[in-house]
Amino acid sequence: MAAPPLYILVRLWIRGGLEAEFEAYESKVLRIMARYDGVIDRTIRTSRVSEGSGEPFEVHLLKFPSRALYDAYLDDPERRSLSAERAGIITNSDILIGTPGPAYGS
Q: What are the boundaries of each domain within the chain?
């Protein structure tokens, strides 16, 4: 029996006015993520009114086949080389990691 996939919920806050830069950064990271069979399963752009609203700009649901592949992605030298670019765009993020839960109501 195969191990269940790993899901990562990421909430991202960005600097106001840097939406295009954020999208360009995310495109770079997505290419790197694909090397480890990771995907952005879902992207949710919040309806935040202003930068100080407390809501994140976007929420991502990432999916990796295993924890080992996710860890390898985190340790990827190219991804790490983008840390200064990330810091200039993203002001805060938080991450929750888990595996599939019960299918309520299915």
A: 7-11+34-46+58-88
Average pLDDT, the chain: 93
Residues 6+ positions from 82 with CB-CB distance below 8 Å: 25, 28, 29
Q: In b/e form, how buried is each residue of 11-42, taking b as 16+ CB within 10 angstroms?
A: bbbbeeebeeebeebbeebeebbeebebebee
**For the segment 33-81, what is each residue's pLDDT rounded down to a tens digit?**
999 999 999 999 987 655 666 889 999 999 999 999 999 999 999 999 9
